[in-house]
Amino acid sequence: MNMKYESQEYWANLIKMSLSRFFILHVLHQQPLHGYEITKRVSALTNDCCAPTEGSLYPVLKEFMEAGLVSVTIQEVMGRERKVYTLASTGEKAYQMASQAWGEVAVYILRAVNKV
């Protein structure tokens, strides 16, 4: 058997990667944000559990933009350009579906873990 499946780190990273996507949508559901602020908000919300790194955040945002879930505007702040990401109506629908799906799954996970 492949040893990675016996590693808590493997399972934790797999779960965190999926949850990170959900929490990115969640913080953008609350308000438009720039990349660094997205990471900070997700980090605070999840006690650093699911905060995306810079290397993982921007590919997800690009994927969300290509799918029409997120739009981006450029703001100038103190002479520097900053991309601000906003959840589109399609992104709102995706967020609602993700919230429902994660809510349903969480109940079963907690139930299974508590039976052990």
How is this structure best summarized?
The chain is of the alpha+beta class and 116 residues long.
Describe this structure in words.
By secondary structure, this protein is of the alpha+beta class. The protein has one domain: Arc Repressor Mutant, subunit A (Orthogonal Bundle), CATH 1.10.10. The protein has four helices and three strands. The protein has helices at 8-30, 35-45, 54-66, 89-115, and strands at residues 33-34, 70-77, 80-87. Helix 1 crosses helix 2. 17% of the residues are buried.
Write the layout of secondary structure elements.
Elements: H1 8-30, E1 33-34, H2 35-45, H3 54-66, E2 70-77, E3 80-87, H4 89-115
Antiparallel strand pairs: 1-3, 2-3
Helix pairs in contact: 1-2, 1-4
* Rg result: 16 Å
The largest sheet has its strands arranged as 1-3-2
Largest sheet: 3 strands, antiparallel
Q: Strand share of the residues?
A: 15-25%
* CATH fold name: Arc Repressor Mutant, subunit A
Instruction: Report the strand count.
Output: 3
- The CATH class designation is Mainly Alpha
Intertermini distance: 23 Å
Low-pLDDT parts are none
Number of helices: 4
Helices and strands, in N-to-C order?
A: HEHHEEH
The total tally of domains equals 1
